[in-house]
Request: fold
Amino acid sequence: MNLPENDDGPRPLHQRPIAATAAFEGTEDIAAARDLARSFLTDLQAVHGLLVSSRVMGTVQLVVSELVTNARKYAPGPCMLTLEVVDGAVEVTVWDSEPTLPLARAADPGRVGQHGLEIILAVSEGFAARREPVGKRITATIALADDPTGDLTGRRL
Reply:
């Protein structure tokens, strides 16, 4: 059996990362990016037995849509979307060729539009943006459990 190599030698199948990656170039690909996220999360349940609530399903698709839309709107050339399960969460990472890092604007209920980063920050457990040798990479982390304490029935108010 051929296993991928790492610094410590081959990794068994159960230790391989669960991930999906795709490149997108056109604005019509924003819907395709959401479809990839939905398929990825559906496979997490069907193939890997991980619980994914409808809230998580919608949140991941929203974050994917916002990040890919921004990449397509503000960066020339293609962007790359990676979805990966890490420590009970889905990391949504988008790389694009524009080196300027996003900046969350001050809340302004009168402003029309440009609230995407505010939304991402509000629904994500974690957020990181970093410059790359070419462009930037933005990662938002969404917990698979509805409640970080493990309550899969939803958050309690």
User: Anything to note?
Assistant: Helices lie at 29-46, 54-74, 116-123. The two ends are 50 Å apart (CA to CA). Strands lie at 5-6, 9-10, 19-24, 79-86, 89-96, 126-131, 136-143. Residues 1-5, 150-157 have pLDDT under 50 and may be disordered.
